[in-house]
Task: inverse folding
């Protein structure tokens, strides 16, 4: 098992009701699998929202296998101005 | 007709200036850098074309023009006193002394700021503080574009617009407020929304383009033109208590398209999600700060990075793009 710290921004934060989550995942879990879990936790509130993923403060445009202690951020686009 | 010191400065070559003050005032408060004729009654024979009358405070000449129904004649707003203050402000870098003593800025940096031209797309929650801060630090030229009018629901977060401006064009209201801060900055306004037709021309001559829009479609257009013209784009966005800032498209660095590819319809506006007045002012000021750093050449900056600020817990995250 690996321990991951998740940072939630804007709509993700409000959909999940938290700005940070600490979870344990199976070894070998990828960013896209974690994103799927996060979307499920959003109960439909994140269905139409594109999310960008950053691992350890760096954008991860492609799927990445997560490591123990990683910090994963989910960042949606924001429109207000 | 009234003419401001700045307008007179810009159009001096086509105007004849007549000083109507008595000799004692002319001697005590000479006009700085202005060639004038002298006539205490405001009339000089053989003068053709447009004329500007100058008294000490701009009141006497205004009365003379009305009373005598003088055509093609301006009264200098604020008179000799206002003109001399304008000249002093134009030349006196002591106005910016508190920032020029920073070794990162210095006089060279201030001159870069004063020679720079920045475009601001949108004069709402982000655009107001961006424009306000840029004019305050002495930016040389500011181009503003927005087709929107001021509404009462804008006022809690858009400090360039006030009660009297409701219904007024935002660019007009903003320019009026900005001119009161610093008359040295040349401000050009376009009363329109940025689109495929006007976008390239608006951005073409700018050193930096500020994205202060409230919709993803315009943001994507700015990104496209910024990349094409190699004009850095300082992006800002808001959601409730959160704001994002990034400097995009600097010599091949990531653009908005790389930052957020995909649908332009996602994300709530401030009208949908709500916003507290201070948040856009904080984020707008960060955009202005990053613009100045870019113009002066100060590092580190947000080129190739996304800053996310949370106004509730004051956390700041910086993501490498």
Result:
């Amino acid at each position: 098992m690996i321990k991951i710290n998740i940072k939630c921004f804007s709509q993700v934060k409000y959909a999940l009701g938290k700005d940070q989550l600490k979870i344990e995942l199976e070894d070998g879990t990828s960013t896209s699998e974690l994103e799927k879990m996060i979307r499920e936790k959003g109960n439909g509130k994140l269905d139409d929202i594109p999310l960008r993923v950053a691992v350890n403060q760096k954008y991860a445009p492609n799927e990445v296998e997560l490591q123990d202690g990683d910090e994963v951020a989910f960042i949606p686009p924001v429109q207000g101005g | 007709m009234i003419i401001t010191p700045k307008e007179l400065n810009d159009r001096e070559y086509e105007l004849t200036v007549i000083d109507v003050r008595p000799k004692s005032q002319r001697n005590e408060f000479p006009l700085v850098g202005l060639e004038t004729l002298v006539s205490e009654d405001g009339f000089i024979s053989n003068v053709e074309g447009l004329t500007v009358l100058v008294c000490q405070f701009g009141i006497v000449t205004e009365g003379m023009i009305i009373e005598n129904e003088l055509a093609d004649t301006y009264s200098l707003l604020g008179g000799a006193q206002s003109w001399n203050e304008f000249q002093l402000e134009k030349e006196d870098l002591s106005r910016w002394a508190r920032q020029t003593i920073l070794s990162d800025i210095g006089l060279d940096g201030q001159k870069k700021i004063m020679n720079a031209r920045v475009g601001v797309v949108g004069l709402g929650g982000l655009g107001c503080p961006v424009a306000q801060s840029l004019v305050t630090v002495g930016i040389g030229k500011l181009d503003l574009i927005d087709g929107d009018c001021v509404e009462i629901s804008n006022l809690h977060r858009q400090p360039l617009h006030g009660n009297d401006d409701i219904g007024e064009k935002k660019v007009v209201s903003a320019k009026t407020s900005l001119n009161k801060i610093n008359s040295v900055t040349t401000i050009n306004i376009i009363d329109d929304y940025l689109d495929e037709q006007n976008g390239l021309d608006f951005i073409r001559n700018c050193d930096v383009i500020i994205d202060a829009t409230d919709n993803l479609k315009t943001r994507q257009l700015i990104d496209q033109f910024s990349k094409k013209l190699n004009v850095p784009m300082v992006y800002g966005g808001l959601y409730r208590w959160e704001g994002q800032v990034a400097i995009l498209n600097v010599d091949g660095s990531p653009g908005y398209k790389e930052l957020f590819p995909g649908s332009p319809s996602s994300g709530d506006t401030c009208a949908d999600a709500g916003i507290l007045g201070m948040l856009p002012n904080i984020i707008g000021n960060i955009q202005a700060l990053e613009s100045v750093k870019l113009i002066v050449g100060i590092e580190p900056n947000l080129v190739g990075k996304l800053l996310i600020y949370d106004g509730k817990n004051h956390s700041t995250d910086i993501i490498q793009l």
